[in-house]
Amino acid sequence: MTSPMRFPQQDLLASLERLGASAATEADASVPAALAQAGVPTAAVAALVALLTARKATLQAAFDTALAADELRRYQKFAKPGRPSAHIVQLRQKQAAARQATSLSRQSLIKAAAAFVRDAGIEVPERVALNAFIIEWIGAKLPGDDGRAA
Fold first, then answer.
1. How far apart are CA 11 and CA 76, in angstroms?
2. What is the DSSP letter of 125?
3. b vs e for 8-40, b when ≥16 Cβ sit within 10 Å of the residue's Cβ?
4. Using CA atoms, how far apart are residues 36 and 44, in angstroms rounded to an integer?
5. What distance in Å separates the CA atoms of residue 150 and residue 128, rounded to the nearest whole number?
6. Pick the residue with more confidence: 46 or 39?
7. Which residue in 26, 115, 92, 103 sits closest to 57, CA to CA?
8. Which of 16-20, 67-71, 87-91, 95-99 shows the lowest per-residue confidence on average (mean pLDDT)?
9. 70-87, pLDDT tens digit by residue?
10. Of 97 and 43, which is predicted with more confidence?
């Protein structure tokens, strides 16, 4: 049995959604000051929630794609040549659906990242892909499972 997908910023996302934006930004000192001005949450907080949700969906889709590929590989190894069995066809369809979900989640991550970068006033370096930059930024600036930035 495989281990479940792990999202390091799950606690931060839950606190932003559950407690309301102002309480969560005051409690987490690692969140940039641009997210809360004088204790009042900015539009960047909603964009951060959307960004973290999109990042979680991206990780889940990548996990599901890898899981479907592993399962297909395992069963296809012993398949007889010729017409594939119904089970192999179902596994291929499952893999195709997982790949499509991965593509859609990447697109939503880029869209959410663009909105967050614009709202938070974060400067993206030149010649760096937005999705690569924002994934690195999330890992460096936002607290993970252990309560501190990675």
1. 39
2. P
3. bbeebbebbeeeebeebbeebeebeeebbeeee
4. 8
5. 21
6. 46
7. 103
8. 16-20
9. 999 999 888 888 999 999
10. 97
Nearest to 44 by CA among 137, 136, 118: 118
Q: Is 4 helix (H, G, I), strand (E, B) or coil?
A: coil
Please give the pLDDT value at position 1: 45
| Whole-number pLDDT of residue 44 | 79
User: So what's the pLDDT on residue 103?
Assistant: 97
As a whole number of angstroms, the longest Cα–Cα distance in the chain is: 68
Most confident of 28-32, 39-43, 133-137: 133-137
Encoded tokens for 65: 């794609």
Which amino acid does the sequence have at 149? A
- The two three-digit tokens of residue 147, written as one number: 């309560």
Residue type, 47: A
How high is the pLDDT of residue 40? 53
In angstroms, the CA 86 to CA 99 distance is: 20
Q: Return all residues near 129 (Cβ < 8 A) that are at least 6 apart.
A: none
Give the distance, in angstroms, between the CA of residue 101 and the centroid of all CA atoms in the same chain. Answer: 12
Whole-angstrom Cα distance, residue 85 to residue 59? 30
Q: Write the single-letter amino acid at 18.
A: R
